[in-house]
Design goal:
The chain has about 150 residues and is α+β, with helices and mostly antiparallel strands. The protein has helices at about 5-15, 20-25, 30-45, 75-85, 115-120; strands spanning about 65-70, 90-95, 105-110, 130-135. It is built from 5 helices and 4 strands; from the N terminus they run H-H-H-E-H-E-E-H-E. A hairpin with a 6-residue loop joins strand 2 (about 90-95) and strand 3. It is elongated.
Length: about 150
Amino acid sequence: MDKTDRKILQVLQSNARASLQEIGQAVGLSHTPCWSRIKKMEESGVIEGYTVRINAAALDLADTVLVQVTLDSHSDNTLEKFGETLAKIPEVIEAYLVSGDYDYLLRIAVSGTRDYERLLRERLYKIKGIRHSKSSFVLRTLKKADLPLLPA
């Protein structure tokens, strides 16, 4: 990765739909070398994919809940089954295995407290092996960003 690759990534982070011509102009390359660099970054896994940012409030999912979860067991089987179960719950946006007082930190998108209560009753409380959970509603997002690119 050199300075030009990092510039290409910055352009793509700000607009993943930018054309090769637009990217090339921004970084000072013609179409073919620009495409070659992007392809190389895709193949090496630097670029994992392209996505769309969705306005959660427009889909009536304006509330974010951070849930800390502790499991009864830490066996490989329990952790694997817990992860598989979380993957089937669309409201769970992110799930992290963490150090500290809790085992997992979940980020959940819901339309409000009643929707979260429904999710608890219908999905989360039915997961076997949860010993304890603690929920916090996000009141305001102060910073939300993509992975920062360090200068070349």
